[in-house]
Amino acid sequence: MAAPGENLRINSDRLWDSIMEMAKIGPGIAGGNNRQTLTDADGEGRQLFKRWCEAAGLEMGLDEMGTMFARREGIEPDLPPVYVGSHLDTQPTGGKYDGVLGVLGGLEIVRSLNELGIKTKHPIVVTNWTNEEGARFAPAMMASGVFAGVLDQADVYEHVDKDGKKFGEELERIGWKGSEKVGERKIHAFFELHIEQGPILEDEGIDIGVVTHGQGLKWLQVTLTGREAHTGSTPMPKRRNAGLGMARVIELVHEIAMDYQPDAVGAVGHMEVYPNSRNIIAGRTMFTIDIRSPEKEVLDAMDGRIREGIDTICEALDIQYQIEQVGHFDPVTFDPGCVKAVRDAAERLGYTHRNIVSGAGHDACWINRVAPTAMVMCPCVDGLSHNEAEEITKEWAAAGADVLFHAVVETAEIVG
User: Fold this and answer.
1) Mean pLDDT of the chain, nearest integer
2) Residue 56 phi/psi, 5° resolution?
3) Which superkingdom does the taxonomy of this entry point to (predicted)?
4) Using CA atoms, how far apart are residues 268 and 260, in angstroms rounded to an integer?
């Protein structure tokens, strides 16, 4: 297939303006965004994206998980489309670029093709996957997981947020539950542009990360149950302190992750303490352990050691425990052909690039199971993400979108 000419570029001003316009919806309290999945703000962001897609002449599809599919027709409509996209939902204290760059970068490809009068053999579909973040409803990458057949749709409809609201009911409430069956679409290839969410590209002064692999992940939700008691009058040897147990598990997770350097990571993020009173020893704690590695054997070994360590800690403190795995995917190897298209695009456009392993989970990780898939990454300032201070430059966004543009259009095959 013919490669696009090196002068083929997206409109970087329009892309940046679109990102800034989307950021006005669901503003955070410190310059970022709080546009959690299936909230009113999520619905408003979807409406804006839909209006932009319709203005670009795209036909919008919507499946039963609320995933949006905006199609630009190809010369041969029966051919499977090339999909491109990411997600519009954010963390409670999220940035303006995580996910959004990938969705609006995909839209910018279509806008640029329209302006240039370029047609492709395969259709191109710009996608907004529902609930990639997993912040409000666990697990992460929920809609793409159902699409790929690794999560059960009926089950995820029943998942609840911290207020007891069900995913399925909230999807209907905001008006974004479609009628299309999930997973029936044929995909020629899928490309996802994303900020790195780590410091490597910026530290090394590299324009583009060519993502070859994705780390595997496990989320373990742990509940420790001790006994509530007065902090002043309960002797130290008599305490069954669930808070102390949690503290020791946090230290355990860190130590185990350090044993598998350089690529393994682990931490406790979400934490709840009951009754959370200043003069009551914690009778119960609930927290989530997040461990990741690009090697399945390492991920499994970390999991085993953590479970064994929790048993030892709880026995010593005379407290009970429960462990539930609430999220999991194995390490990912992205499609060599799609990875080559990304690498070739970076070289053609004159951008510096390097291979990189994604430390975060992305919708591409699930879609890779059912279609050839690859990812493009651009730097972010100080590697900071999942934080309202998350920042990228307009030039980084443009470089990533240019490479995405070339990889998608080459795969969709320019006509004429």
Assistant:
1) 96
2) -90, 5
3) Bacteria
4) 17
CB burial readout 184-198, b (16+ within 10 A) else e? ebebbbbbbbbbbbb
pTM for this model (two decimals): 0.85
Q: Which of 171, 154, 162 has its CA nearest to residue 138?
A: 162
CA distance 39 to 135: 12
Q: Can you state the percent helix, strand and coil of the chain, rounding each to 5? A: 35, 25, 40
Q: How many residues does the chain have?
A: 416
Tokens 């959370």 sit at which residue? 276
Show Cβ contacts of residue 326 under 8 Å, excluding neighbours closer than 6 positions.
138, 139, 219, 220, 221, 288
Span 240-268, pLDDT tens digits: 999 999 999 999 999 999 999 988 999 99
- Answer yes or no: are the C-beta atoms of 107 and 70 closer than 8 Å: yes
Q: Any bridge partners for residue 355, and if so which? A: 210
- 53's CB contacts (< 8 A; 6+ apart) are 60, 68, 70, 107, 126
Q: Are 282 and 242 in contact (CB under 8 A)?
A: yes
